[in-house]
Amino acid sequence: MSEQHATPTPDQHGYPPPAAATDQIDLTDAPAPAKPFEGVPDSDYVRDVISALLLLVSLQLVWNGEGNTASGIAWVLAPTLLSVVSLALPYLARFGAFPTSWTVHTTRRARVLLNLPYVLAVVAQVVIDASVRSRLEAVGAAAALGLAGALLAATPRASELGPVEQDRAVTSTWSRVAALLAALSGVGLLAWLVLYVVEMTSRTTSGSRTDVILALVATVLVALALLIPVLAAALGRTVAWSRALVALAVAHLLVLFVTDGDQVRSVVETVHPIRDVAFLPSGFGLFLLPAVAVIAASPAVRRRTSQNPAVAWFDSVRVTLLLQALLAVVLAVASVLQIWVGNGRVADLVPAAVVLLLIAGLALGALSTVGRKSPADARGTVLVLMGASLVTGCVLLGMDGGPLSAFLPFLVIRLAVALVLPAAVFLALTVPDPVREYLAANPRTPRPGDGAAAYRWSPRPERVHASRPAPAPAQQSYPTAVSGHEAAYPPAPQAAQPPAQSSPTAPGLAPDASGYGMVPTDGASPVQPAGVASEQETTVIPAATDTDIGAPEAHEIVSPTEKVALSDPIDQLGREEGGFTWAQAADPTTPAATLAQIVQDAPSLRAAVASNPTTYPALLEWLAQLGDPEVDAALAARVN
C-alpha cells in the first residue's frame, strides 16, 4: 500500500502536512507552543506601568520657573515620547517583531539609548538655570518626575538579567550610576548651601544676624535629613535603605503632583537662592531623589546583596522606622526655629512640633520593640503603634503654619512621616510572601495560659481578707522553698490510700527551733506510707525524651521505699510527700523520669523540681503554666 498525502483542508489553515505524513497524524508527542510572556515576573509589569505614568504625568507639570509645562516645550516633549516607546521594546521582542539577531542584550542597550535624550534635556535645563540670572529658570517638578520615569524605563528588568556570576557587569554599572546621581545630589545641595550663606550674608544687618544663623541651621538640618537616605541607598549594600528611599520618593512625587500650579516657587529648584525667602525654598539637588530611588531599587542593583528575603524585609522595617523618627524630629526643630526666623505664629507651630515629636516617639517605640523581640512577637505591637502613628499623622496634615505648608522639603517630610512611611511599614509586615511564610513557620512565643485572661472574661479569684482568720492547716505545715514562710499543704485523699505501712527504723522528724528546717527526734515516728500518690492531676505532664533522661539509670524502676531510704533524713526543709523528699527533687543526679513522677505524685515538691538545674525544658514549661506562686518564684530564681 503506497503512502498518500492528505489534501489540505480548511481546518488545517491551508498548510500541507509535513513530508511522509499519512491521513492519521499523531500529535501526542508534539511540544506545546511556548507562551510569549512566560517567565516574566509581575514586578516587571509594575515597573513598566509606573514608568509610563511618571513620564505621561510629567508632561502636565511645570518644567521651569516661568510656569511652562513640559508638553509645551518641544525639546522636552520629544525625549518623553522616546522614553515611552522604549517601554514597548521587550513586548515587541516577545511577539517576534524584531529580526533573529535581536537579543536581550540588544533590548538593554536600546533602552539606554532611547532614554538618554531625556537625561540630556534635564542637564540642559540645569545649565540654563545656572547661566541665566535675569529670570527664574529653575528646574521644575516635571523634570523630577520625568527623570525618574526615564531612568526607570532605562534599567533592565528582572526577566532580562542573567546569572549573577555571568552577568555581573550590569549590576556594577547601574550601582555606579546610582552612586553618581547621589553624589551629584549631595554636591549640588552643598554648593547651593554655600551660595545661600553668601546671599544671606550680603543682605544681613547686625540686628538680623541671629535670624540668618537660625535659618541656616534649619536649612542644613532639613537638607541633611533628606540627603542621608539618598546616600545610604546608593552606597549601601542592603536593600533596606533603598526601600526606605522609595517610600520617601513616593512622598516627594505626591507633593510635586499635588502642589503643582499653586506656588511655582514651591515646586522648582534653582542654583540661585531666592532673595525674598529666608528659608530653604527647595534647595538644589533634591529633584534627583526620586531618580536615585528608582535605580537603587532596580533588580540589577538590588541583587548585589545576598540577604534572606524575609530578613531583608524586617531590616527594611527597622530602617523605615528610624527614618520616620529622624525626619519627625528634624521637622519639629525646624518648626520651632521658624518662630524666630519667620515670625511664625506660636499657636500654629508649637502644636505642630508637639505632634511631630509624638510621631517620633511612636516610631522609636516600634523600633525598640523590633530590636528586643523576635519578628513574630514584635509584629503585632509595631502594627498597633503604626496605626496610632497614622491617626496622629492625619492630625498633623490638618495643621497649618510656617514652612509646614509653604516649602517643598517641609511638605515632603510632613507627608512622609504622617502617612507614607507608616504605610510602608504596614505593607512590609503584611504583604510580602517571604514575610508571611516566615511568620507561618516561626509563630510568636505562646504566653502562659495562652493569654486568654487578658481579653476573655473569667470569674475573679476570691481573696482572703486580712481580718478573716485563715483556716487551720490540715497537716503539719512546712517552710516554702523560696521565702521560708510556712505554707500548709492538704493531705492526700484517705480513700485512695492503700493500707498504711510503717518503717520502725525510719527516724521521726520535728520542726527545728529556728523555723527553717526539720531535725530528727529521739523516738521513732511513723513514716508516710510508701507509694501513696497525691490527688489525681488533670493536666498531662510532658514526658521526658531520651535526650532529657540521659543516663541509662533513668530507665530503672526504683520502688518508693528505696526512694525514702535514699533520701537525706535531715534535709534542709525536711519536706516529703508521696514517697519522695525535697532533697531528691532538688538533686541534679535524679533521673528525668523520676522528676516527672515527683511533680505528679508530690505537688509540695514541685518548687524543688523547678529549681533543679537538670530539669528538662518541657517539664519547666509545664510547671510555669500552673500558676503556683512558689513554683513561679523558684523559676524566677532559676532564670536570675
Automatic annotation (TrEMBL):
The keyword Transmembrane helix applies. The keyword DNA damage does not apply. Residues 494-507 have a biased composition (Low complexity). The chain crosses the membrane at residues 69-92, 112-132, 138-156, 177-198, 213-233, 240-258, 278-301, 321-343, 349-370, 382-399, 411-431. Residues 580-638 form the Leucine rich repeat variant domain. InterPro entries: DUF7937, LRV_2. Residues 1-10 have a biased composition (Polar residues). Residues 44-438 form the DUF7937 domain. It holds the Pfam family DUF7937. Keywords: Membrane, Transmembrane, Transmembrane helix. Residues 1-24, 460-536 are annotated as: Disordered. This is Uncharacterized protein. It comes from Flavimobilis soli.
